[in-house]
Amino acid sequence: MHTVNVTAADKAERYREVLPQIECVIADETDLVANLANTAAVLKATFGWFWVGFYLIDRRRNELVLGPFQGPLACTRIGFGKGVCGQAWERGETVVVEDVNRHPGHIACSSLSQSEIVVPLFDADGQCFGVLDIDDDKLAQFDDTDAAYLAQLARMLTQAHARQAV
Q: Which Pfam families match (predicted)?
C-alpha cells in the first residue's frame, strides 16, 4: 500500500511533490482503470477539490463515459463537443473555466460546481482517449499552473496507457 505525503502550501510546490508520487503509484500497474482510480484519489486528497475524475471515450457512440472518480454523483455520458469535457475533447486542448455559470454550454452535473478544468488524455498515436475533469465549489480555482502540471500528469497517464496496450 502506498502513502502519499504532501507538505507544501504553495500550489506549484504541491504539484512538484505529488506528481512523482503518482508516477510511482502507476509505474508498475498496467491496468488503466486502476491507474485512473488511484490518480483521482490522490488528487482529491492532495488538493481537496470538489470533484476529480475521468471520462473515457466510447467511439461507437461518440461520447465520453464516466470513469473512475472521487466526489459526488456525476454525469454518466457526455457528447462530443458538449459541456466543458466534450469541448476539451473536441478541441484537443485543456479548457479552464473560472465560472461555470458563465461558460457557454456548461453541463451542470452538480449545482455546487463553480469552476472547472478539463485536460484531454492522448494515446501514443496522438488520439484522445479520455479527459481528466476537475471541478471545485469555489470560483476561479484553476489557472495556468494547474494546466501545466495537469498536462504533465496527462503525459504520465499516456505512458501508463501505452503499457496497457502492449
A: GAF_2 (PF13185)
How many other C-beta atoms lie within 10 A of the C-beta of residue 60? Answer: 6
Q: What is the pLDDT of residues 55-106, one digit of tens each?
A: 999 999 999 999 999 999 999 999 999 999 999 999 999 999 999 999 988 8
SS3 for 78? strand
Q: Give the separation between CA 18 and CA 34, rounded to whole angstroms.
A: 18
pLDDT at 163: 67
Are the C-beta atoms of residues 45 and 24 closer than 8 Å to each other?
A: no
Pairing of strands 128-136, 77-79: unpaired
**What's the CA gap between 150 and 166, in Å, rounded?**
25
> 94-151: per-residue pLDDT in tens?
999 999 999 988 888 888 899 999 999 999 899 999 999 999 999 999 999 999 999 9
Cα 51 to chain centroid, rounded: 10
Task: With beta carbons less than 8 A apart as the criterion, state whether 49 and 141 touch.
Answer: yes
Q: How far apart are CA 6 and CA 105, in angstroms?
A: 36
Beta carbons within 10 angstroms of residue 134's beta carbon: 25
Q: Which cell goes with 51?
A: 470533484
